[in-house]
């Protein structure tokens, strides 16, 4: 700490000699003595040379007041400024030789200015205060230091270069004297040369450094490492602002780092690493990616586009790969859950990203017409058949809710209809005139979902009696097993008919069971397979195997064991043949003819005259399911035959609406 001795003691630190004030002595009134002037000269010299002052400060202050009372204030102010300027000029060689001591000399200089100002305070508060164009004694000292020391080209160059060198060393991981940097930069800021002498060059060097670093690290590191490096660099630069840089540097400095490490490499970062981050569910890095890209102009729109493209690509592979049909629905549910979590956790629930995800799902899920709807219907059917065995009621509800979200993305949803006449709901909505069609719709709950094709079967008396009184077949039968005693089996009608036969005998062949029950052969094979080849095998099959053959024989499994009392035995789903799939597709298209016809008539009624290409384009915009151009042409021809519209006689490709 710098200690200034007022009386006595030795010199604390020498900063050179000062021209004597006596050289500038003015002519004063006759009662102004030579002793008074000498006191002031000695005081200023002692202060500038850091030696002890011989006179009392109050006495010196009074001497200045006396001079001002003799109307010599302008001369006194001018000569004091000249003395200070000569002193500063005499020190410049030291600053040129040792620029890093500049801050130490600056602090000493400030202390000396405080002492000088305290002696000449009367001059400062009277003459200077009354003349607004004159700087105060304090400001005069700062101006002289700035003009002759800091603005000296050699001093400024070596000082700024030294500061930049220290900052570069710190950026490379070395430890530097932050207090020294804070003092030097604080001096530049106080003297109002921080921006011109330091900040511009500092930002230029920073821009050069991070431009080169960004190019190099994008080649050397993977995306997660690079993102963490960028985040760390931003933290370091913010810390420098707090520690020693001026606050005004924050915005341009951080913008420079973000531009060179992020803005120049946005596309490269996303091309190189977004798919990997999403595939591996790297939520920490995805959240960091979103946070960093939100700082850069155009960052989030770019990320949004890549996010949308990823979902379309990944989802399209699930839907358009026939080998994945078996697990398509489950994979879609898992993929949707994963993307929902990313949007909620990593992308700050940004509405734009959520809407882009919905749009992408709607796009890829309709790339393969009809199949997703068909597989979703089968998936729901299997879940409802399993009931509470595979999941609790609450879990099942959650699964069905998720399935319906996926299902809403599908344009052609008619595969999901249970009733053959469901197409008439859709058809009536497209009619402009009221219709006389009578329609009754029954909503099937889980307990009434059809599990087999209706057919005539032979009901034993006990089942017929139950049906007569309750209007439905029993949903379960009680069975007694040697090892575990009584169990309640939840079974279908066909399963019930088969199990009741073993009250009358111990073993039956498949042909004997078919004759006794009247169940159709294919349905009987599936029923026996569920009872003898599934997870809950209440019947034994001989010989053992997964499929039921003509010569197989069945007996009651007395050794059956299960941890539950109430056991649901699931039906085996019938596999759909290629011919059945083709038939289903044809039926769906036939049902959609009503929608196509209604859309054509509606468009022609509004437009009156339209070319074929424009009509087809309008149809694609209005129809919410995929359709081939050839099929549209057939429906147009049909409407022409039925006099809803006609071709132009001179231009066959032009159509006119017929009122």
Q: Quick recap of the structure?
A:
One of its GO terms (molecular function) is ubiquitin protein ligase binding. The chain is mainly alpha-helical.
What does this protein structure show overall?
The protein has 659 residues and is mostly helical. 60% of the residues lie in helices and 5% in strands. It contains 27 helices and nine strands. The strands form three sheets. Strands 1-2-6 form a three-stranded mixed β-sheet, with no helix packed on it. It has a three-stranded antiparallel β-sheet with strand order 3-5-4. A three-stranded antiparallel β-sheet has the order 7-9-8. The protein is elongated. Keywords: Isopeptide bond, Ubl conjugation, Ubl conjugation pathway.
